[in-house]
Here is the input.
Amino acid sequence: MKNAKIYIFLISLFLASCVSLFPSKPSSGSRLPERSTGSRLSSRTNKADTKNTTTENTTAENANTETKSTDSKGKANLSSPQATQYSQTFGYPVNRQANPALLAMVKDWLGTPYQYAGSSKSGADCSGFVQQVYLKIYEKPTSRTADGMEAQSKSISKSGLKEGDMVFFKINTPDVGHVGVYLQDGYFAHASTAKGVVISNLSETYYEKYFVGGGRL
Here is the structure.
């Protein structure tokens, strides 16, 4: 009996050693986790998409900056189509930095007939037209006469003229008798006795002869 127990014990040890030497293969349901490539590819794709979106946004912003820039005071410029339209109407290449409100009013008043002491679109003289421009565009009251406007404004040389300045003329008189509103590059809007509200240039022989200076409020 004692020998039988010893024999069984030895068989048990032998079987245990066999199990430890030859472990069972894992079942198909207990495979080790595989390396996930999908998440890395997704991450790389998202980074690429983000980079492309940033590049597209930057390009769009640069395009908008080129299409619509601003002047030193932050006022919006004219768009290219607007500048082209005004250039065709006024007869000179209009600067995109020009004041849109001023150009719109000048365009609206072009062709208004001359009328002494008038200040409306039915008829206006030179000071009446300039007075309306200053009231509606710059919200500044002015004298009703050309010489009065010269007296109340700061004197500006021809080379120092800027958009919106007044331009004064002495036409066969000792005092200033004609006034207009400066636009750009020598061009100015005014009400002439012969043609009503028109755009002329200071380089024209007639106006160059009688021009005496500019004024700024």
Remarks:
- The longest helix spans residues 38-67.
- The helical segments are 2-21, 38-67, 80-90, 100-109, 126-136, 146-152, 205-210.
- The first strand starts at residue 119 and ends at 120.
